[in-house]
Amino acid sequence: MVPLADAPRRVKVFVAVTASILILLVVLLWQDSDDATPVWVTKNKPGPSSPSAPADHHASVPSTSSTPSKDSKTSAAGSSKDTHSNPNPASPGVKAKDPLHDIGNSTLGFERIFAIGFSNRMDKRDAVTVGASIAGLDLEWMEGVRAADIPEKGYPEGWDTNIRNENEIGCWRAHMNAIQRIVQEKRSSAMIVEDDVDWEAHFRGLSRHFATGARALQGSAEETRSPYGDDWDLLWTGGCAMRTIKPTFYVTYNETTVRPVEHRKDIWWPKISEEPEYEGARFVFDGAVGDCTPSYALSYQGARKILTYISMGTTTNTIDIALARLCAGKLDVPFRCLGAYPTIFSSFWRAGSGMRDSELRDGDPAWHPATSAVAYSTMINAGRLINGSTTALAQWPEMNPQEIPLDYEPPSGEIVTVDELPEEDRTEDDFP
Ligand SMILES: *[C@@H]1O[C@H](CO)[C@@H](O)[C@H](O)[C@H]1NC(C)=O
Ligand SMILES: *[C@@H]1O[C@H](CO)[C@@H](O)[C@H](O)[C@H]1NC(C)=O
Ligand SMILES: *[C@@H]1O[C@H](CO)[C@@H](O)[C@H](O)[C@H]1NC(C)=O
Questions:
Q1: 309-328, pLDDT tens digit by residue?
Q2: Residue 407: in which H helix or E strand, if any?
């Protein structure tokens, strides 16, 4: 073989071109192969190759949107103000990838989104399917579980059928199946939603705010595998209750899309959010304890811990309380939970009889209008949004603004440590 230095120019060019193609192929294959590995490899896709990054799904939600002003309706895609930019001094002009970039993707920066529901509640699937389509989210459905399909021998140790109704064991198992799937398929993270889920129409900006706070609280490096940071077990992206048990949190004061106290449908919320200084503030908590499971996210490690300590352990509680107890440290195992308040995802009850609402128990048979726990509901605005509107309307007259651009993003906040949390935030009676 002729040494390269002596080779004719044409051969050199051929070798160079072949080598480039091979390198390109290796890079492409490497980028595609992340499905199978739970190892949190840091992948850097710097500026020039960014067109190959996953496309942002929702045209009207630019992933680089940064809208610090509450009344700005023009948070343009080309905005040069990017608080999360990560300039690389070694190569001027080449901007490193925004660590929050992937929150703009079709799985909200998680590896998968699993949606749990009974295939015979086709009505609920219709609603979630159209909502996901509006939001540019890709869901994978997983079948709900009926108690009749679980042999009593397979119930968790400690489960008391005198206290728990049979729908609760079905719900518990359906979530455990989704969690088992994360471990089985080695997903680095996944969000799990239920079929009555609803979310704020400006959820991308809220999720970026959540991730910014979560990263600050974790002390994340600039580059992480997950846009939410790499040191968490569970994220309460949604819920019907939230509090913190740690006195350090991330807060944006006077954030206008926070639901006012009189309209909170949550079972409980952080008492600190009612103190004058924090009224109208948006929080991200480390040591978050939530309840209800319309939407939450797990890391691979978090999912493994749940199978180990909840499924293989003793469980007297419903799935949501079991998760709350893990987060509250009641099981004496390290389990890091972060949460946003107000929650970004919550529940939706479509117009009709309350009997239709839940698979867990029968509601009031009386008719009720379409109701949601979130302020600028995707579901309530669905008609408007499929008609091409780029804004959503608030449910309540107290909200200011009444109309929110879909690409609204809350201003960034700051880390605060208080001397002591209010008494109610510290009591643990709700998750014994
Ligand atoms: C979205 O981003 C996450 C985090 O980088 C990644 O794991 C996931 O594969 C992405 N989803 C899609 C559909 O590209
Ligand atoms: C929040 O807004 C109120 C009224 O506009 C103002 O008095 C207060 O100082 C603001 N709080 C913070 C922490 O910025
Ligand atoms: C839908 O959008 C069209 C075009 O903007 C508008 O003329 C029409 O009034 C809208 N319809 C509804 C029901 O919002």
A1: 999 998 889 999 999 999 99
A2: none
**pTM, to two decimals:** 0.79
Question: Does 44 map to a domain?
Answer: no
Pick from 178, 240, 189: which is nearest to 214 by CA? 189
pLDDT digits (tens, 9 = 90+) for 180-229: 999 999 999 999 999 999 999 999 999 999 999 999 999 999 999 999 99
φ, ψ for residue 348, nearest 5 deg: -130, 140
Closest residue by Cα to atom 8, ligand 3, is 387
Domain that holds residue 191: 50-432
Question: Is the CB–ligand 2 distance for residue 254 below 6 Å?
Answer: yes
Distances (CA, A) of 20 to 4, 13, 47, 416: 16, 10, 18, 50
Beta-bridge mates of residue 252:
282
Where does 253-341 show beta strands of DSSP type E? Answer: 282-286, 288-291, 295-299, 337-341
Q: What angle do CA 58, 59, 64 make, to 5 degrees?
A: 85
Query: To test the ligand 1 pocket, which listed residue (41, 58, 108, 111) has its Cβ within 8 A of the most ligand atoms?
Result: 111
How many C-beta atoms surround the C-beta of residue 308 within 10 A?
A: 12
Cα of 383 from ligand 3 centre, angstroms: 10
| Residue 191 CB neighbours (<10 A) | 24
Cβ(293)–Cβ(319) below 8 Å: yes
Query: Beta strands 345-349 and 371-372: pairing type?
Result: antiparallel
Using CB atoms within 10 Å of the CB of residue 306, give its burial: 0 to 12 exposed, 13 to 18 middle, 19+ buried.
Answer: buried
Cβ(198)–Cβ(306) below 8 Å: no
Classify strands 295-299 and 282-286 as parallel, antiparallel or unpaired. Answer: unpaired
Residue 108 lies in a domain: yes
In 3D space, the residue among 338, 318, 374 whose CA is nearest the CA of residue 244 turns out to be 338
**What is the total count of domains within the chain?**
1
For residue 387 and ligand 3, the question of a CB distance below 6 A is answered with: yes
Per the domain annotation, does 35 fall within a domain?
Answer: no
- Three state DSSP letters for 163-206: CCCHHHHHHHHHHHHHHHHHHHCCCCEEEEEECCEEEECCHHHH
Could you give the CA distance from residue 424 to residue 432 in angstroms, rounded to a whole number?
Answer: 14
**Residue 18, domain member (yes or no):** no
382 C-alpha to center of ligand 1: Å?
Answer: 25
Which residue has its alpha carbon closest to ligand 3 atom 3? 387
